[in-house]
Write a structure and sequence with these properties.
It is found in: Lysosome. With about 450 residues, the protein is of the alpha/beta class. The chain contains 13 helices and 17 strands. The longest helix has 15 residues.
Length: about 450
């Protein structure tokens, strides 16, 4: 634990000194975690016929209560984020945004106060365009006024989309709105859609500027409620990792989009896969699910403390795909603790095959790049099994279900640790997902 804290404060101090380039608001030193309405509830504004599921004050207060009462806040989920479709179709006579008067009868300041009263933080959505994606007023022509409005509502997190905007204008528009947010004097996490719209338009994003002005940003398609959508995002991040990975770090994150675990489109194994890979990617963990009806096994995935700890690792190094062959992938992320020149690692074994039977993957720790002479303590983060300290020569064998994942944590040991372990590692019969043999 001492090593973890020491590393966290080292990263924190470097951020303050400006040696880790990023948006200078001191926020999002680890990927944001919370709940976001969009993927699950979309733009449902029919509160007359569907009062329980429409975008409304009632919905967000309910999710706030559940986040606190059912253990989500306790494991790190802290943002309640309103997405599109919250305002009136027209601004008021003074040009200010107005929450829909029927669906948000008490106003956004009241909702923000309620979220804060529960110890959580409040997020809101807008668009750098004439309109939002659903056709509500955008921020163009109102940058300073809208930033001031959000500050007056005590907003903690702003997501700025990019519909109805020219991608070429985003290089100055997104920084301009970010400056207006900072000028309010209120700290607000700034989530940008800047790169994805430029990529769609064939424009190479200026990631140096994006890192300077945004806390997180989207690179690829909106997630949909399907395994095919999750796979496409995993493929994009793997295929473009040489460009994407170097941009991530404390205060500035790549955002592969929301967690859809507990909805309709993913199996149990696929849900475990999304959560594990998002942790390897150092991704924001923004759930978009009906927390009132989520089944216990999916709730357990979202509340897995050990995988959340990987996602929230203070080094902020995004992981990479290090192996891909015949439907089997291995993803690896450096994490704390660090022993000398040796990182610890989270390693995910992903089975993309659909042939109906689990696949065995056997590899030595050394072949994974784990070369610490003192060895690594290995733990299966879903099965909650500790396999003790293993040498780099140890061959591990994992059994991975179709469209499933096995995620391991390998903590580098100090130089004295390996001398104290037995020469032979005992296999635990409690779980046959993971087997050990000596090479």
């Amino acid at each position: 634990m001492a090593s973890w804290k020491s590393c966290f404060w080292t990263v924190f101090v470097l951020c303050l000194l400006g040696k880790i380039s990023g948006l200078d608001n001191g926020l999002a030193l680890t990927p944001p975690m919370g709940w976001l309405a969009w993927e699950r509830f979309r733009c449902n504004t029919d509160c007359k016929n569907d009062p329980d599921n429409c975008i409304s004050d009632r919905l967000f207060r309910t999710m706030t209560d559940i986040l606190v009462n059912e253990g989500y806040a306790a494991v790190g989920y802290e943002y309640i984020n309103v997405d599109d479709c919250w305002p009136e179709r027209e601004r008021d006579a003074r040009g200010r945004l107005v929450p829909d008067r029927e669906r948000f009868p008490y106003g956004m300041k009241s909702l923000s106060d309620y979220v804060h009263s529960k110890g959580l933080k409040f997020g809101i959505y807008e668009d750098y365009g004439n309109f939002t994606c659903a056709g509500y007023p955008g921020v163009v022509g109102h940058l300073a006024g809208d930033a001031a409005t959000f500050a007056a509502w005590d907003v903690d997190y702003v997501k700025l989309d990019g519909c109805y905007a020219l991608p070429a204008d985003m290089d100055h528009g997104y920084p301009a709105f970010g400056r207006e947010l900072n000028l309010t004097g209120r700290q607000m996490v700034y989530s940008c859609s800047w790169p994805v719209y430029q990529i769609y338009a064939g424009i190479q994003p200026n990631f140096t500027s994006i890192i300077e002005h945004c806390n997180l940003w989207r690179n690829f398609d909106d997630i949909q409620d399907s395994w095919a959508s999750v796979e496409s995002i995993i493929d994009y991040y793997g295929n473009h990792q040489d460009v994407i990975v170097p941009n991530a770090g404390p205060g500035h994150w790549n955002d592969p989009d929301m967690l859809i675990i507990g909805n309709f489109g993913l199996s149990y194994e696929q849900s475990k896969t999304q959560f594990a890979i998002w942790a390897i990617l150092a991704a924001p963990l923004l759930m978009s699910v009906d927390l009132r009806t989520i089944r216990p096994e999916y709730k357990a995935i979202l509340q897995n403390r050990k995988i959340i700890e990987v996602d929230q690792d203070p080094l902020g190094i995004q992981g990479r795909r290090i192996y891909k062959h015949r439907g089997i992938e291995i993803w690896s992320r450096p994490i704390v603790p660090i022993q000398g020149q040796h990182y610890s690692y989270a390693v995910a074994f992903l089975n993309r095959r659909t042939d109906g039977t689990p696949s065995d993957v056997a590899v030595t720790l050394r072949e994974l790049g784990l070369n610490n002479p003192a060895g690594y303590r290995l733990e299966d983060l879903y099965e909650d099994v500790d396999y003790g300290v293993l040498s780099p020569q140890t061959k591990i064998k994992v059994k991975v279900n179709p469209s499933g994942v096995v995620i391991l944590r390998a903590d580098a040991q100090p130089s004295f640790a390996y001398n104290a372990i037995p020469s032979r590692t005992t296999y635990s019969p409690l779980n046959d997902i993971f087997r050990l043999t000596k090479k």
